[in-house]
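An instance follows:
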Amino acid sequence: MFSAVYTYFLKDNHYISFIGIIIFLLVAFIFSNNKNKINPRRIFGALALQFILAFFVLRTEIGNHFFTMLSRGFERIYSFADAGIGFLFGNMIDPSGPWGFLFIVKVVPMIIFFSALMSLLFHFGIIQFLVRFLSFFIRPILGTSGAETLCAAANSMLGPTEAPLFVKKYIKGMTESEILVVMISGMSTLQAGLIAVYSSMGVSMIHLLTASVMSIPGAILVSKILIPETKIPETSAGSSFEMKKDTSNMLDAIAQGTGDGLKLAANVAAMLIAFISLMSMADYLLFNIIGYSLNEIFSKLFSNITLLLGISSREKSVAGILLGQKLVINEFVAYSSFVKATLSTRTQAILTYALCGFSNFSVIGILIGGISALAPNKRTILTKFGLRALLGGTLVNLINAAIAGLLIS
C-alpha cells in the first residue's frame, strides 16, 4: 500500500501539489495580523472540507455523476438562451460558420439571459433556499458566525456585490475577521451566470462548479489565517436571516434582472475592449523600451507558481501568462486565452480552478464601493483590507488548484 501511495505522488508531480498547498498556507500565515490567535481547529476543518468536496467530485463515482448531471442541467439551461440570441443575430450564433465564434454574439447576450433567470429564481426564493442549505451544513463544521457563513455560501452563486445583500443588516456590526470573509469570498468565487458563460466558451462546467463550491470553505480558511477572529460576532450562536425580495411579481423580476444583466453585459464588453486594447499598447511600449513583452513578463512572474499546482515544466510558461492575465486584468480575459491555448487535459483542469474567481485589482474597487454602500461605517476597514482581500482570494484559488492537482490523475 505504501508503495502504491508513493508511486501515485510521484506520478505527474503530485507531491509538488502537496508542497504547494503548504506554501500557500504559509504565505497566508506570514501575512496574518495576529498569528497567536489563529484557531487550528477552524483552519484544519476548512481545509478538510475543501479536500472532501474535491475528492467527492473528482475521485468518487457518485460525486462525479452528481456534478456531471448538474453541469448538463446548466448546459441545457444556457442552450435556451440561443432562442433569444438567434432571434436577434440569426445564423451568426453558429460558430461553425465562416465568421467563427463571435464573443459579442454568443457570450455577452447570455449574461443578460442568466441575470434575468437568477432574478426570477430569487423572486421565488429558490436562490435563498440553496444558500441557506449550504450555510446550514458548513457553519457547524467550521464554527463560524451565521452571517459570514451565509455570505460565503451566497458568493458561490451570486456576485461580490449581490451576496452581501443577504446579510446587509448585520454588516455594520461585523468584526474585522467577518468583513474579510465577505471580501475574500467575493474575490474567490464566480456567480452562476458567469460559470455558464465560461462553460459555453469551452471551459469544463464540472470543474467550474466544483471550484466555486470549494471556495466557500476556502475563503473562510484563508480569512481566518489572515485576520483571526478575536471578538464574539453578533451571529456567532446563529440568527434568523431574512432577505426580502424587492420585486412585486414574476414579470417585475424578469424586467429587473434583464436590466441588471444589460448593465453587466455592457460593462463586460466595455472592459474587454478597454483592457485588451490597453494591454496591446502596453505590450508594444514595453517591448520597445525594455525588450520584453507582457506575456514574457507574466510568464517569468507566475510560471514558477504554476509548478506548485502540479503543472508540468513544459507548460508552465503558458500557465503563468494566464495567471498573470487573471490577476492584472480579469478572469474573462484569462479564460478567453485559456480556451485557445494548447494544453494537456490535466493542466486544463488544474488551471480551471486557479482562474475560477474574481480576484483581480479592479474588483477591489467594486467590493469597497458595493459593501460600503450597505455599511458606510466599514469604509475605512474595507480600504485597509483591499490588497489583503486580493491576496486572500488569489490564495484560495491557488489552494483549490493545488488540491485538484493532487487528486487529478
In short: The chain has a mean pLDDT of 84. The chain is about 75% helix and 0% strand. The first helix runs from residue 2 to 10.
